[in-house]
Design goal:
Blueprint (H helix, E strand, L loop, with lengths): L6 H14 L13 E6 L10 H19 L3 E3 L3 E2 L4 H10 L3 H18 L10 E2 L3 H17 L2 E11 L4 E3 L4 E2 L2 E2 L7 E10 L5 H6 L9 H11 L1 E10 L2 H4 L4 E6 L10 E4 L4 H7 L3 H11 L5 H6 L4 E9 L6 E7 L10 E4 L5 H10 L7 E2 L21 E2 L10 H14 L3 E7 L4 E2 L1 E2 L9 E4 L3 E4 L26 H4 E3 L6 E4 L3 E2 L8 H4 L13 H5 L4 E5 L5 H15 L12 E4 L2 E9 L5 E4 L4 E5 L5 E6 L5 E9 L10 H8 L1 H10 L7 E2 L2 H23 L13 H24 L2 H17 L5 H18 L4 H11 L22 E8 L2 E9 L4 H10 L1 H7 L6 E5 L3 E5 L1
Parallel strand pairs: 1-2, 1-26, 3-4, 12-14, 26-27, 28-33, 34-37
Antiparallel strand pairs: 5-6, 5-9, 7-8, 9-19, 10-11, 10-18, 12-15, 13-14, 16-17, 20-25, 21-22, 21-24, 23-24, 28-29, 28-32, 30-31, 31-32, 34-35, 36-37
Helix pairs in contact: 1-24, 2-19, 3-4, 9-10, 18-19, 19-20, 20-23, 20-24, 21-22, 21-23, 22-23, 23-24
This protein binds one RNA strand through helix 7, helix 11, strand 19, helix 17 and strand 32.
RNA sequence: GCCGGGGUGAUGGAAUUGGUAGACGUGCCGGACUCAAAAUCCGGUGCCAGAAAUGGCGUGGGGGUUCAAUUCCCCCCCCCGGCACCA
């Protein structure tokens, strides 16, 4: 072994060895159980960021650990290559999105390889290639014929100046990001996946997912949002509306129906349109409602506004006339575009009624609570304890009884019925963008929307285009959209919208099993590898991506392509990588963000930061918060710089040590140096041992007390690390346990032949236990400790139960719950002996001060608490 | 606004099933080595009082359950993720 730890050499050598032996090629033929380990594939944005390093290191640790535990591991990698940033880059730098994307992939692939991931690169998948997306188009045409995909109109953010649709993130304070024009909502035709048809199953199957975090399942349940409620029809008041008809609403609180004092409709609702024709001020208000974006967060937080239409509907049960209002918080796209308002028992309606002086009518009472129109109280919305009041024949009924009575009365009048509903909406996938998968539809004036026949797939996205930022690029390319109708042969127009990029990422996990299949979306190998045993990715994907992928799995299952109901058996959601921010105030209250690498932080005598200066000019900078690494806050640390300076193993070790995977991870330069120091110490300890000659690892024989204690700690550590890597997935504590073990070895200085076999045993175990985390280092350590063996063939170390046997244990003594001392006792000591010893203990006597113990609690093997 | 998560020394975090709060790392203080510095190694380090022994306090704030609460329950404050066209 080299005397010094030289990561550059050993990492290159280890990677070369893995390449030469095709070590991570996943084979279908194997007598071992399979383990499919998948990290969310990256968007090729340019270069690797710390979030990627964290994600892929976690995946690699689990992959290598499972390999050592005897699994046939498959860990693939690919590229989520379609998306908006490529078009933005094209606008900024005048490079075609395809060229930009492919060159980013080249660079990032080199970076990923330098991390030493045990990836089977032969399975690489790139979503922007026709080889990949043709199968997405193929599935689309199948689903279209089945009716799972349909067309309807939907609202988008419209930039009237650039004449283009904007993504939510491109709308900043209600204006287009490039033009600065006020954004408005516009209804356009789009294709939808009928995900609501699978809502019930998507909800129910969450119960199968024992390996998913409870929080993610809860978020998905709430997102799907199954509710039990009632359709209610309010007959039109013929005098004001002038025609027959009903206004339909859905409510989860039919028990409050007798408290309805008005109804509210969306700006686009037919009744609103009708009323606006007579009332210019209403028309103006409707126009105002159409301003602004479509994001739900904006709609939910904006000021609630409304206007009376002057129209009326009648209450379905008591025939009362109720005014129809237009309100900006009611959206046409959701449900019927109308809601019934019960100001007394809904907080939003309450505010609205107060603002516009609409009547508030109590219809629910809770015992010992008194109702007042003046201020909202939380009990007004209480379903559990309320009973009906001011509700005629329903007075005195509780929630469920009123629900049943009112809905059955509505049904007998044909003015409504019970219905369960989902909050989940169908998935609109049309995008008026260039860099995405073309939607395989041809529009024919005779035949309508015709799916592209299988033998004409794929519809290839042209790669030579000019992106202008206005309009849709494909819609300006006749060579793309001019075509013949596959049915009647007459001149037709190809669809120029592309698909939501969430579609590609909804099935890539399946494609990895059969990446080279040219005859189908996936082949029989999918049945062998799926489901994914471990999926790893950011918590920000908890709802959309994971729900869409689950949905796609069911769609593919129903097409006979895959088996099983769920794609991902176990899920690990990793936290963000965060770093301190620094800035200077500039004119116009703009902040100039300064990279942490360019800043010197001053601390007081206890290490607390007291100020910071810019290295370049020595002048102060302001210390900001610790936030997610991002370009906008300029607080990113380039992983490449860390790999170049310390090596990939240090980067990997720090990432795994600084926090458990699910928490956010704070970047720390000195923490990185600490990780590097630890690797140097492991290297030195192994080197110094090997220099004196390698020996066989300890097997059996008499040992000194110190050697016995070291072996006890060793095997306790193996037990803990095995559990930490396997069950708990807390890599930070696994590393800490190895650090403690190395510290203990450092204090063990016996040089007898037997002692050296114990040292060999410890060093071999450390090399193996650290292997999943710092595989290059372990590869080199192993070459020194066991020159004849390849580390890749080694199993995870096994616990020697005989080393764990302890004769004496420590018991903690408490008096009234406070720690007062401890006892070392024989492990076999019984309860009576323990109580006796505890009462006799000096510190216990002192704190009892003669008082008679009322109770003695003995927790075997842990503590004794004497209550006086 | 709605849904989900989090808050522990100077600092990142540990405490796995209600049972010794602060493992391990960083920083800081002291020492060894050195002409000196860096690197390395050794020791100390929750806060308050005390020379010490020791005692009290302490897991965002307030209350509760329990022999015992970072852990369970209720209320409040702050921070973060998602909200359907960022990925």
């Amino acid at each position: 072994m080299q005397q010094d730890y030289q990561p550059r050499n050993i990492e290159a050598a280890a990677q070369q060895h893995w390449d030469n032996t095709q070590a991570f090629r996943a084979a279908e033929q194997s007598d071992k159980p399979k383990y499919y380990c998948l990290s969310m594939f990256p968007y090729p944005s340019g270069k690797l960021h710390m979030g990627h390093v964290r994600n892929y290191t976690i995946g690699d640790v689990l992959s290598r650990y499972h390999r050592m535990k005897g699994f046939n591991v498959m860990q693939p990698m690919g590229w989520d290559a379609f998306g908006l940033p490529a078009e933005n880059a094209a606008l900024a730098n005048n490079v075609p999105p395809a060229a930009w994307t492919y060159s980013n992939i080249d660079y990032m692939k080199k970076q990923l390889k330098s991390l030493g991931l045990g990836v089977d690169w032969s399975r690489e998948v790139t979503t922007c290639t026709p080889a990949y997306y043709r199968w997405e188009q193929w599935l689309f045409t199948r689903l279209f014929k089945k009716g799972i995909i349909y067309k309807k109109t939907s609202s988008v953010n419209w930039d009237p100046e650039d004449q283009t649709v904007l993504a939510n993130e491109q709308v900043i304070d209600g204006r287009g990001w490039r033009s600065g024009a006020l954004v408005e909502k516009r209804d356009i035709p789009m294709y939808f996946f009928r995900i609501t048809q699978y809502a019930e199953e998507l909800l129910a199957d969450l119960d199968q997912l024992d390996g998913w975090p409870e929080q993610v399942k809860t978020m998905q349940r709430n997102w799907i949002g199954k509710s039990y409620g009632c359709d209610v029809h309010f007959p039109y008041d013929k005098a004001s509306i002038g025609s027959e008809g009903v206004l339909k609403v859905y409510t989860t609180r039919p028990d409050t129906l007798m408290g309805v004092t008005y109804v509210a409709v969306a700006a686009e609702h037919p009744l609103a349109t009708q009323a606006a024709a007579q009332k210019p001020e209403l028309a103006a208000f409707i126009a105002e409602c159409k301003r602004g974006g479509t994001a739900e967060a904006d709609i939910a937080t904006m000021e609630k506004k409304g206007m009376d239409t002057g129209l009326f509907v009648t209450h379905p049960l008591n025939g009362e006339k109720l005014p129809v209002w237009v309100a900006n918080y009611v959206l046409m796209g959701y449900g019927e575009g109308a809601v019934m308002a019960v100001p007394a028992h809904d907080e939003r309606d309450f505010e609205f009624a107060q603002k516009y002086e609409l009547p508030i009518k109590q219809s629910i009472a809770v015992k010992e609570q008194s109702f007042s129109n003046a201020a909202w109280q939380d009990w007004y919305a209480d379903k559990e304890h309320g009973i009906c009041v001011n509700s005629g024949k329903y007075d005195g009924l509780d929630f469920q009884a009123a629900f049943d009575a009112i809905s059955s009365d509505l049904q007998s009048k044909s003015l409504g019925q019970k219905r369960t509903q989902f909050r989940l909406r169908d998935w609109g996938i049309s995008r008026q963008r260039y860099w995405g998968c073309p939607i395989p539809i041809i529009h024919c004036t005779q035949c309508g929307d015709v799916p592209v026949p299988e033998d004409q797939l794929p519809v290839v996205l042209p790669e030579q285009v000019t992106i202008t930022g206005t309009g849709s690029p494909l819609a300006k390319m006749p060579e793309f959209f001019e075509c013949a109708c596959p049915k009647c042969g007459s001149k037709a127009r190809r669809e120029t919208d592309t698909m939501d990029t969430f579609v590609e990422s909804s099935w890539y996990y399946a494609r990895y099993t059969s990446p080279d299949c040219t005859t189908s979306m996936v082949d029989e190998r999918a049945k062998q590898w799926l489901p994914v045993d471990q999926y790893i990715g950011g918590i920000e994907h908890a709802i959309l991506h994971l729900l869409y992928a689950r949905f796609f799995h069911k769609l593919m299952r129903d097409e006979g392509l895959v088996q099983g109901d769920e794609p991902f058996k176990n899920l690990l959601t990793q936290g963000m990588v965060i770093a301190p921010t620094f800035y200077r105030e500039q004119e116009g209250s703009k902040k100039l963000w300064i990279n942490p690498a360019e800043v010197d932080v001053k601390t007081d005598e206890r290490g607390r930061p007291v100020g910071a200066t810019l290295l370049a000019d020595g002048q102060p900078v302001i210390i900001g918060g610790t936030e997610k690494m991002s370009k906008s806050k300029n607080n990113g640390v380039d992983p490449q710089a860390i790999i170049d300076e310390f090596g990939a193993d240090t980067a990997r070790l720090f990432m795994m040590f600084a926090a458990p995977p699910e928490q956010s991870l704070e970047w720390s330069d000195s923490g990185v140096e600490g990780s590097f120091r630890f690797l140097k110490r492991v290297w030195k300890a192994t080197h110094d041992h090997v220099e004196q000659g390698v020996v066989p690892a300890y097997q059996r024989g008499e040992l000194s007390a110190a050697a016995k204690a070291l072996r006890l700690q060793l095997h306790q550590t193996i037990q803990k690390v095995d559990d930490d890597l396997g069950r708990r997935k807390t890599f930070n504590t696994a590393i800490a346990a190895n650090m403690e073990l190395l510290n203990a070895l450092g204090k063990f200085d016996e040089q007898t032949p037997y002692a050296r076999t114990v040292a060999q045993e410890v060093l071999e175990a450390i090399a193996l236990m650290l292997n999943p985390i710092v595989p290059h280092l372990s590869h080199a350590l192993w070459a020194g400790l066991r020159p004849a063996d390849d580390l890749l063939a080694q199993p995870f170390p096994k616990v020697d139960a005989s080393a764990l046997v302890q004769d004496e244990i420590e018991i903690v003594l408490q008096v009234n719950g406070k720690l007062r001392g401890s006892l070392t006792v024989a492990k076999t000591a019984d309860k009576a002996t323990l109580e006796q010893l505890a009462l006799a203990h000096e510190a216990v006597q002192k704190h009892l001060a003669g008082a008679v113990p009322k109770k003695i609690i003995v927790v075997p093997g842990r503590l004794i608490n004497i209550v006086a």
